[in-house]
Amino acid sequence: MDCSLIRTLINRYCAGEENWVDNRTIYVGHREPPSGTEAYIPQRYPDNRIVSSKYTFWNFVPKNLFEQFRRIANFYFLIIFLVQGYEDWLRHKADNAMNQCPVHFIQHGKLVRKQSRKLRVGDIVMVKEDETFPCDLIFLSSSRGDGTCFVTTASLDGESSHKTYYAVQDTKAFHNEQDIDALHATIECEQPQPDLYKFAGRINVYHDRNEPIARPLGSENLLLRGATLKNTERIFGVAIYTGMETKMALNYQSKSQKRSAVEKSMNVFLIVYLCILISKAVINTTLKYVWQSDPFRDEPWYNQKTESERKRNLILRAFTDFLAFMVLFNYIIPVSMYVTVEMQKFLGSYFLTWDEEMFDEDTGEGPLVNTSDLNEELGQVEYVFTDKTGTLTENNMEFIECCIEGHVYIPHVICNGQILHDCTGIDMIDSSPGGSGKEREELFFQALCLCHTVQVKEDDNIDGLKKAQLSGRSCVYISSSPDEVALVEGIQRLGYTYLRLKDNFMEILNPKNDIERFELLEMLSFDSVRRRMSVIVRSVAGDIFLFCKGADSSIFPRVTEGKIDQIRSRVERNAVEGLRTLCVAYKKFTRKEYDSVCKLLQNAKLALHDREKKLAEAYEQIEKDLILLGATAVEDQLQEKAADTIEALQKAGIKVWVLTGDKMETAAATCYACKLFRRNTQLLELTTKKIEEQSLHDVLFDLSKTVLKHSGSLTRDNFSGLSTDMQDYGLIIDGAALSLIMKPREDGSSDNYREHFLEICRNCSAVLCCRMAPLQKAQIVKLIKLSKEHPITLAIGDGANDVSMILEAHVGIGITGKEGRQAARNSDYAIPKFKHLKKMLLVHGHFYYVRISELVQYFFYKNVCFIFPQFLYQFFCGFSQQPLYDTAYLTLYNISFTSLPILLYSLMEQHVSTEMLKREPSLYRDIAKNALLRWRVFIYWTFLGLFDAVVFFFGAYFLFDNTTVTSNGQMFGNWTFGTLVFTVLVFTVTLKLALDTHYWTWINHFVIWGSLLFYIIFSLLWGGIIWPFLNYQRMYYVFMQMLSSGPAWLGIILLITVSLLPDVLKKVLCRQLWPTATERTQIMSRHCRDHTSEFTPLASLKNPRYRSNDCSNSPARRSNSHSKKRMFTHWRGNDYSILPSIFGYSNNRCNSSARYCYSGSGLETSV
After folding, report:
1. Please, which pLDDT band fits residue 421 given cuts at 50, 70 and 90?
2. Which of 170, 321, 387, 828 is the catalytic position?
3. Where are the alpha helices (DSSP H) in 147-260?
4. Active-site residue, 1135 included
């Protein structure tokens, strides 16, 4: 076997330096010298093969990767690739951990522990307290005797409160493994579908050989994967949907990637620069062949072409030259800008999370950044869409009063004119009711104690739940609705206490300390369409009652008896005051009527198809011909500084819309309280009531005529609409009217109602959308987002019903409130309270946008300065693709010499102080509509870069032209020329950034002057040392030779000064002649600093337009200050001064022309 090749390879690659000799001895004809002469030393030389290729089969991959990753842009894409791969690996890891979780199965009457991935449909599973359900289960039985369990679904819909689920009636008595294993039953249900709140099925339970007993199954029997069992020792359930068929998995949806306006501008600018790059390459290619049309230039005597080069195709040669010029000029495309932008966004997001002013001590939480891609979008918001309950208000319900048969009751006792707090009793504002009134009063309190889904837990250790104390008895009320807990606790203070639900019997304690028991026969659950719920109960005496409670709009049309006018008047009065109201009614059934109702409900519940529709029809038949008992009023307190935040946003030019499911009067009162509507705001209604009186077309026409009448004659503020000299308009629209507007015209014409609606909204300072479903909230946001102005929208909410609009808006913000974490998890940012939105937008958003805008424009500017001299140089080198700069300078310009200063600038620059931005919200308007990235600004930066590049190149050119510039009379060469241009370039672009910096720290000084120092040291080392790893070193001694010349020093200083002068002059002139609001603020703040002495009062430094809210920010509890609070409101064309007292609420109409009204202690919205 011939091993010479292997030996040659080993000797070639493994032999050390000792085999190398300074000269070689060649033996002619390979003959060895005669013996006795010099020692024969065999030497190995390469064969005669010529290798011009860069790679071999073995080194292609490593060597090519090394070459590619010398480019920083490829490192960026490699990092993105690795990050995405790592993120997906983490998902695989999380999936495996979840799929391998232990689950308890029932097999042959025993508990068996298996992995979750082995669970199959039909398996019976046991789940213990605080465990998560491994799949979708039908609830069979629980450790609780009444067959119920408590579940939290925070991971599904964001609702953190406890929900009650019910076991199948025929299986709830099976409490051990043997009983469950003996169950013989079949389940028929619908195929998997993603709706979390809908489920239709039935279970057939077989007893011996008898016919099976069919029981309906609904959403109250379905335990969803991802939910957690609470306050129940254990439950048994049968798996019906597993794996990717569970409702949780079907709701997986990848959120659409949101792109900021800055990113879109960057892409457009990049296309412009790509066109410039192609144009440069085309121009140079064309001029090259024009230049070479002269034979002497094409083939000079010292560079004759070969025969093959002469025969080469002209088009192919031109295309090759075009590509060569593309490579030469490709540095004009700032690929490194994307790397810097990503770093700036990622690192900049930490400034938001580190903000101590946005940390909420009550919850122990601060702001959360779920995506940093939209930081700068916070500085461009034009519309804010906010939820009401839990966002503008605290979502902390408190029972205020109830009205029964026209008599008002509040939970206090009056004794000798004094209010005795914390006492149990009834204060009747009006005269005591008669005999029938006493009966209605008792029925009202019984209705509130029975018509709810509240559960009672006799335990002090329950997560975050409210506790009610009653004469030493500790009761914890659990409900998915805070309104229900507030009502039950309020009625408890009025003497009626709900005790428990046991064995399908509800027990209440009356004022006489007697326990009354009612059998729960049926429950007609609440839904957002009916907006009411009902229960059918049987008393001990055998009387069967239906108690119904719900919104006034759904109760009043269904009542036929009762003091309707008095109660309606009280409901409207409470709604105007901002209270949440519910109406209560009842109906008495005979035995025969109840049997028909029971049969109707049973048939609807057993239906597998269209069950929801059939149940709705059954409920509609049952809940009619009711007798009205009364109404309740519950208060949801306004959040701290909510009014101040909305006022600041409006001054910043941001339009605020409130989207809520509450009734119009309640929502309107809250809007007045939080200063969304003002005294001089004229309310325009686009509601169902208006449309019933007129057609939709006529209503829209009248509203358009009203708002356009003033906008045509007066100049309206296009941003906020705030003005004291003209009429402000506020629009109120409800969900039904919005559905008609969004519905296409029947005639199919393109002139639909949406444009008319948008035109009205544009001329209104604020809009209130009430009675909104979650999907309608998203429709509103999408409608505004896609309008012809394409404004930047922001949606903020705290509940699962706000997720749709949060995902639809350009920027979604979740509040980590009391309605779970669903909104916060699906949002782009999360904040503890609504008040933190002010600083997030007006300060952080402002800074984010200004910083990244400067970063983008600066990158394009410095790359134009960098490459345009290279373009000009081609005119002086015969278009030979000769580079002007050394390779090291080409590589390190964007990586080292100019990258850190702009990165630090984009992280730390504050052109205006934080306090000034909070004090002057109008500064937000200076950057609105992408002001800093408009074409005018982009063109200015580009032409500034072109001017500087021309100064660099021709300044150095004329300096070198026919001049001896060294002490010994030598001329500078082309590399010295390029180094001089590059030195002026680096110093100019760095000093340009220094001139733009307003906020100097030691970090800025270190990075800016350090980068210049690094360039000098690098150039000295790069050209002052012979590097052994370089095959050739064309920059040797070039930099030192340039610095040894006095004219070169003078030229560098002169060219830097000339380059920076136009930008400095432009800024000085514009600041003096046409200053922006920001520049005026900068001058004012600098003037204040210069003239402030130690004796100057701090209050005098504040802007006179700024009003401190320090004295009114603490939220007052309305129920604790009945006798001292006065609130001003405007409703339906009248001004009201509302003064609660111990004798009720009196509405005194005030003169609209009054300049002010007296205000005592109370809400921050008092006037």
Report:
1. very low
2. 387
3. 154-157, 177-181, 247-250
4. no
